[in-house]
Every structure is written in C-alpha cells, then in structure tokens.
Write a structure and sequence with these properties.
mainly alpha, two-stranded antiparallel sheet, 8 helices
Length: 202
C-alpha cells in the first residue's frame, strides 16, 4: 500500500526536514490537506502539570518556541525530552549523529488524521487567530508535560544547550522522526542510538 502523508499548510516558510508526501507513482506533492485545524499535542499523550519554584531557566527556550510558532507546552515538552535523552546518551557526537538521522526518517505506515494534523503543527506551527489569542505568553512556573517525563523533570530540569533556536529545530526533527516510527521521542532516540552503535561495531 502506498504511504500517504497528509498535512496542513501553515504560516511562514515551509519546514519539512526532508519530509515530502508522494503520489502513487512517487512524484512529490505539495504539503496540503483538508483535515482542518492542527492538533497541538501529540495524540495519545497523557499530560500532567508540574509547578516549578523557579522557571526562569525556561524563559529563553520559551522565547525560541514562540518564534517558531509552536504551542508553548508542546515546544517545551519536546525540547526538554530531547535534552533528557541527550544527557542519558552521554555523548554530544552521538546526539549529532541522531540530528542527521532524524532528517532521513520517512513514514513507514500511513499516518492517521490526528497524527497528520499534529505533524502539521510541528512543521508549520499554527496561525489560527482564536487559538493564538488563547496561547499563554510564558506560563510562569507551570510546566505541562507528558506523564513519562514528570519524575525526571521534577528531580531537576536539564541544563540548557547552546543556541536555543537551533535546539528547538532539532527537537522538532526528533519528534517528527519519532512520530513517523510510531515511537515517543525518547524511544526513537534510544533505539536509534543502539542502531548506530551496532553499525559502528560491525
């Protein structure tokens, strides 16, 4: 069965990270869909609110996410999940390898509509005026993240990386790659790291 990728065009420049839908004969198509408004959170994620005594360390990250046009909670969650994964891997060179690998990921199965709409949000952000008007500016000390991250983030926030805008873009690429594999960002990172290590030994 041919893979069909349906996403919604968004505001600003196209950011596809090498991802393009194709028709039945393999010709590349424009990013377009009639799915309606984008989905702002990963479908199926259960989220909880974590209250931070000091959220000042997230101000720069939140500003970078705002420039990218992502929903603030979604952007912070995927950036922090990537930071946790990089810390767990313990290798910046391996993280750089995964940055490159994320660009090459392609859909293995057809994405159902909610995942396609979430993918649109990751690639383009959202420009719907009513939603933008409701978007909180900073969220203060409130951090709404998937439950799988709560314990690790409650212990301590990971240290920021250099170049926050670049970090946000890489986090989005990892999340897109994970989505195309039906994995969470962490699952994709750890499996891909193992694959890279295995290839290096052979």
């Amino acid at each position: 069965m041919d893979t069909k990728l349906r996403v919604i065009p968004g505001a600003g420049s196209e950011r596809t990270f090498g991802l393009r839908p194709a028709d039945a004969v393999g010709a590349r198509q424009a990013l377009q869909s009639t799915l309606g408004r984008p989905v702002l959170r990963r479908p199926g994620d259960h989220v909880e609110t974590l209250w931070l005594a000091d959220a000042s360390g997230l101000e720069g990250l939140r500003a970078a996410i705002g420039k990218r046009g992502l929903h603030p909670d979604t952007g912070v969650a995927i950036a922090l999940e990537r930071r946790l994964a990089v810390e767990a891997l313990g290798s910046r060179s391996l993280a750089a390898e995964l940055d490159e690998l994320s660009l090459a990921e392609v859909p293995r199965i057809e994405l159902w509509s909610a995942h396609s709409a979430y993918l649109s949000h990751l690639l383009h952000g959202f420009s719907d005026r009513p939603l933008s008007a409701q978007q909180p500016a900073s969220n203060g000390g409130r951090l709404t993240v998937p439950i799988r991250l709560i314990d690790r983030l409650a212990a301590a926030l990971p240290a920021p990386f250099e170049g926050l805008q670049d970090e946000v873009e890489k986090s989005i690429r990892w999340e897109v790659a994970a989505l195309l594999r039906s994995e969470t960002l962490s699952e994709w990172a750890y499996r891909s790291a193992l694959d890279c290590s295995s290839e290096g030994k052979s």
